């Protein structure tokens, strides 16, 4: 069926009000849990097919996350749906105020290719818990996963309310011509701009989850085991998620010059321990998703000055689309590798005289999705928090903010706007309607014309919620207020 | 837009280049971090409050000149509401600026987390002509409370107020962070080309249609991935049931319609829906109460604003001249083009495809649509675009519930109109065609804030199971850990799951 027709169907279904019921929402969330539980192997398989992801990575980064998110939403959705009571000033007695969360309607979710399962299903969980009908457009650059979603979702979820539409750029274009009540986009800033412009034609609100150059700052850590912990976490944060192809992956590292050689030695050791002597044959590292991305990343190393700065790695396997963990020491700051988001397994180390300079360095670039800072210096921590801006900041670790669903997950500036995870997912797909209930007796007469000085004074007092003054005023006393003539 | 403002010709040309250097200057100033401090924010809010309170007479005069606004409406709605906003900020700002601690789970143990509010940076506020002071300064004070630098572009359609705002802000506020750019389409275009950290735009019904302008703004913002708040409008319906205290209901409809800038307000009741049987009662009640409020000759009443400009006068006249509504006027209908006055006018039984039902009226004309059964009103409203506000007068609990549940709008009132505007604990904003984002009270602070997530971890408690090589034991443990159940973890450690 053509897209316009599918949308019309979804809209009609939404109008029936079925998706607003708690029962429907819970049934769909349960269905997602069933889908995950019954297809763990299948999901690992397609993730391996598209990206060479190891099953442990697949579980840790995708399957486990979806499961947790669905469970949480299932147990909390009723609570989240409860109207929030708001205080109304006594002046309006009797009155009741509340904020009601209602679904926006027909929602479009664009997911990305690097975490193709969770970036489709996690927003879906949010949209469903908020009572919307949904179209998911999985990335065509992860075709096995896209196929999996298109075939499996209709088997578990209500296909009147949730549809998967596959395809490439032309399908995206067609989708963007339609009128949506919300668009949730995960991807690059360039495409985000196109999506937002299209959304503007229908005044469709958007959430944009983008990326950026997420820096890691490594302060002096004299305790050798702490230093080792930090480096391990940085390695895990760089090459662990999809071989560096992650929006919150560590992009580059800032460290003081005097630590660089011991750091590089440690990196080499840890990389060898994690990925073996020949990482190109390691089954633990994801591969690069496709030829286009492979060439893009390889080109970053073409610049001779950049190539000269490689201190570890650099080997590539074009046939299998593998690039080994590669470390560069002080590549030129105006090279592409330092001006664009790398989104690959190359780690530039930038050395500074003093680690405090890292703040200025980071601020010279667009605001990233995350900043990772390894330090025990409390003053430095506070400085980083107050003098830099990013979606999030994590101290002494990498990536784990993804697991903490009480924290909003989203960017700022070039790294995007809007947020999700936990209740934030529910809110992102909801309209918060302000509702005020009044009664038809007990009137405030001075609300109405004809106007008079008495009414004006009354209203001025009312505004200040000066109830005593109001009483006196009504009894004919003035309180020495400024006269209005 | 009408280029009636001759003052723009006297000033230097404000083009893309000027806008760009203004932006650069403000960014540098914002980089100095001075606007982040609590003291700076409080001093600026107090300064704004002083500016408004010490110049009440000038403000009243400017609004009288721009809109013939009755002084009471200026003092109560424009000045009074702004004062309220400032006072709420002064009272609560410390609390709003405090990081919010959040719980962490066993999955990230040991850790602690918080959400830190920080300013977005340099923001643009573009306001409208109908409440030109309030709609300029209310968002501005929210932006300042959140620690941003802000540029205000007041509406050129209220030139006296625009000019006064420029003067007051220059005199009272910190010029390194708060600036006013006056002008019309050219200046607005130049401003919209820049890369802002947020754009807050209040657009009201007009010659281009607020939906159209909203789209233009969002498209410009899309180029720079700038988040926006769009306060637009729509046709805010009032559904009137029978069996109610009709006198009170009529007065509340009147106060929301003609009492708010003579119907030129984004949340004014736009049109009424009631049953065919009840309509005559409603019309009579409205007539009686209108006369009590505005006398027998409302064209002479000083308690009614005039129509803002001849363009808008023509727009409203078109609605009345529409063939489809001829003979439908049951009250009012008088017009005076020279004085830009239109009397409170009620039309009964207008066809749904008439001009007046095709767009937001934004004026003193109140069409009444009649239905056979009151439930039909819900379908009528839902079939249209989501409005900024929806109102229902009823004592029927069941109908009330249906209404609240099924009508999607920015805000909704039962048994009253427009009051939610002054309740700052309720978010004020639209949905769908009526806009996106909200403000008032803490929502204003939030609108101009980035809530930064911060997670603190220690070096203790590192577990090798995070890292490759991945063994079966590690896999089991990891599953248990992500699953977050203590039992699962114990089982995994014991090797039995």
From TrEMBL, chain A:
Residues 11-435 form the Aldehyde dehydrogenase domain. GO terms for cellular component: cytoplasm. It catalyses: an aldehyde + NAD(+) + H2O = a carboxylate + NADH + 2 H(+). Keywords: NAD, Oxidoreductase. The keyword NAD applies. Pfam families: Aldedh. The keyword NAD applies. The active site is at 209, 247. InterPro entries: Ald_DH/histidinol_DH, Ald_DH_C, Ald_DH_N, Aldehyde_DH_dom, Aldehyde_DH_NAD(P). Belongs to the aldehyde dehydrogenase family. This is Aldehyde dehydrogenase. It comes from Sphenostylis stenocarpa.
TrEMBL record, chain B:
The active site is at residues 231, 266. The keyword NAD applies. GO terms for biological process: aldehyde metabolic process; response to abscisic acid; response to water deprivation. InterPro entries: Ald_DH/histidinol_DH, Ald_DH_C, Ald_DH_CS_GLU, Ald_DH_N, Aldehyde_DH_dom, Aldehyde_DH_NAD(P). Keywords: NAD, Oxidoreductase. SUPFAM superfamilies: ALDH-like (SSF53720). PANTHER family: ALDEHYDE DEHYDROGENASE. This is Aldehyde dehydrogenase. It comes from Sphenostylis stenocarpa.
